Amino acid sequence: MPTYHALALFSGGLDSILAAKLMQSLGHNVLGLHFSSPFFGHPQRISAWEQEYSLPIIPIDIGQDFVDLLAAFPPHGFGKVLNPCVDCKIHMLRRAKELLPAFGASYIISGEVLGQRPMSQRADTLHIIRNKAQVRDLLLRPLSAGLLPPTPMEESGLVDRSELFSIAGRSRTQQYALAQSLGITTIPAQAGGCRLGERESVRRYWPILQAICEPRVDDFDLANAGRQLWRMHNSRPQHWLVIGRDNTDNERLLPLTRPDDYIFMLADFPGPLALARPTRDAWPIALVQEAASCVVSFAPKARKAGSPVQVIVRHNNKEWPLWVPPPFAHNFAEPPAWAQTRECIRAKTKELSQSVCSKTCMQTDTQE
Length: 368
Ligand code: SF4
What we know:
By secondary structure, this protein is α/β, with parallel strands linked by helices. The chain is 35% helix and 16% strand. It is elongated and about 80 Å long. Bound molecules: iron/sulfur cluster (SF4). Iron/sulfur cluster binds next to helix 4.
């Protein structure tokens, strides 16, 4: 296995590219680590990045760790939406530290810029991240190094501090100049890319965290696909149904199916494919019937026929037909609007900060 001087957190954003390429230009052998989860990361772009930036990069899947972090409520809280940036950075740095010996590397590079982001890149937060990740003597932030205390890498002469930068704040002017001097011509779009910072995505995720005590990565993969519908019980999301909005969605849903999921397909009309995932127990037949009704309500031709519609249901490797009569009534609905979701997140945050329980899940023992 090749060895490297340093491992660099490589998100594919401009700052991560600049930090890795700057150290490479100073003669350091750098390996990029690209972290991915259902919420962020583009491992399929790695080979294009390797060619574009002449930098070796490996994928690191932290999906389940990240899901566990969300479900257990991140100790440093969320940013503006559901983005636990401080704990996310701590987690990535810890993983990078664990990987150092395997690659013979002696330090970690991060593209953080002092003051660029309100939550995770304030001076005090950078300090917390470095200490909590236990990378105090291993972490180099080359873009803002001149504004931060010297690291052991600089003090020992391994890295020439005078070659590092003193960038701070939200302006990108200095980054563009540095990119030009490093010969980087492909500049990625600014920020974005993390679904936990997007309100519409979080409307999809929050019901899962409320309804499932130990969610899995493929729950969030499912939340990223199709039209999300929930049936509430005592004002809490309880029964989950995902309906394909088009053929692309339908094709995405099938590979995400677990044996105990319910699959719904219309027998005689064009219509969506739908997947229902029990959050705890198997569904009673009345609920399966209601979900089938809901699926038909999204099939205009079947709805207009005005007569009972046959729906094929698949569950635990069994398949059976179900006749659904008009008017195709149901109580499934899209997750609450962002304002309501935000209030719910805030209330849960407050409740958890005052309690010994540290689970976002609101599941109770009684189910409908
Ligand atoms: S925006 Fe997303 S990927 Fe980036 S630090 Fe925050 S939680 Fe992590």
